[in-house]
Amino acid sequence: MSGRLRLPVSGEMFRTVVANTSARALAIAGLTLATVLVARTGGPSAVGEYALLRMLPGLVGVLCVLGLPGALAYFLAAPRRDLPRLWPTLIAIGFGGALLGTVAWLAASPVIAHVFFPQESTLMIAAAGLTVPTQLVLTLGKTTLQGLEDRRGGDVVIAAEELAFLPCYLLPLVTGIHGVAAIVIGLGLADLVVAVEAWRRVSRLLGWRRFGLAADGLGWFGRPDRALGGQIASYGLRGQVGGLITLLNLRLDFAILGAMAGPAVLGSYAVASKYAELLRLPGNALTWVCYPRLAKLGQAEAAASARRMIRPTLIGILLAAIPVALLTSPVMRLLYGASFGPAVTPARVLLAGMLLAGASGVASAYLYGRGTPGLNSIVLGFGLLVTVVLDVLLIPAHGALGAAIASTAAYLSTDALLIGVLLRLSTPSRARRSSTVQATEVSA
After folding, report:
1. Which Pfam families match (predicted)?
2. pTM (predicted TM-score)
């Protein structure tokens, strides 16, 4: 068994990471095409509103499900996936969180409209709350495929969730609906279309007998297990802190910049940020692929596997950064037009912040896989502190460039700390002792 579960740096692992990175690149391509269309029809202000509507409802949803997306891969790894009443418990948490998130958005819509969308009606922003449950259902379907190790299915969903927006956005446009209304409709329809495919794949993996009909508490429906729910919430909340901090590190500058400088400046910065995040794709892919695999390996073997991947990921990202940086200006001007020229310099600054992202992706996967997501969250919390302090200091005077400098400092400091934690915890002596830590955290 140990030989079959060994996690190599090359071969099958390399192909899996390349496939996942390719899926994420397709997603970026779809997002780019959609952003170009939004930019051409509405200008930088529309792009800023699009960026906020993609971020804020999803953030609300994730906050309300007790970290369930981050916990799924851990509890769906063998042998935990066969725990009695696991699925009813997962579904209860997901359904309750979706309902809570929608109500919370509706209640806060006047404030959200005033702060982030001053030119839009409160009613329209309240309607955007319908994307809270649609984004959540899609996210849970995607992370369930990750936990069940359907790598091909997960890659399809990752690519489709961005590619699907373009035709779904075109639909309201051709019927005469424009502006924020078209964006909200496009986002909601795209979420539903891709979520149906994700959960179809999940039900096929589990088998139709498992699809609500299995006995002994192994089906999808039934009475939730409160104790098991507590374990899932405990793990999920510790991981959710890190996931939320990661999202805030990536998008808090969007919110602060949008509130301080308005949608037009935010639109240019959003384009710069998405371009720079091309270098983060391999790191995200490594986390996605390695997390469920490391979760089922022995501690010493998982530690050795993670350490072996650090050097090649560092070198790979550094080599990839050179052509991406050189192409920044022609790509920006060609795709988005002269009005997005101010995005070039922030994009190049943000690219520097991505240089350690590959190795830090391995580090996050290792910390989640060994059952210690809280350590990941603590490290990411430091990066969030850097983001907040520097955003407040730099954005008022330097706008988008200040946001880029703040984010770059946060990315580099956080990634360096994660790599340092991985190197320290994965030494042979510590790896042998870590199984006790894992057992303590899961039962906490």
Report:
1. Polysacc_synt_3
2. 0.65
Contact yes or no for 69/202 (Cβ under 8 A): no
- Residue 93, token pair as written in the block: 């948490």
Report CA torsion sign: 399, 405, 409, 411. Answer: positive
User: What is the H or E stretch that residue 408 is in?
Assistant: helix 373-425
Which ranges of 296-354 does DSSP label H, i.e. alpha helix?
A: 299-308, 310-326, 328-336, 344-352
The predicted structure's pLDDT at residue 178: 86
CB 419 within 8 A of CB 359: yes
Number of domains in the chain: 1
Question: What confidence category does residue 400 fall into, taking pLDDT thresholds of 50, 70 and 90?
Answer: confident
For residue 92, give the nearest of 103, 100, 81 by alpha carbon: 100
- What residue has token string 């590959």? 358
Tell me, what's the pLDDT at 299? 77
Cα separation of 191 and 202, whole Å? 16
Among 364, 352, 363, CA closest to 406: 352
Position 374 pLDDT exceeds 80: no
* Total Cβ atoms within 10 A of residue 441: 17
CA distance 398 to 225: 52
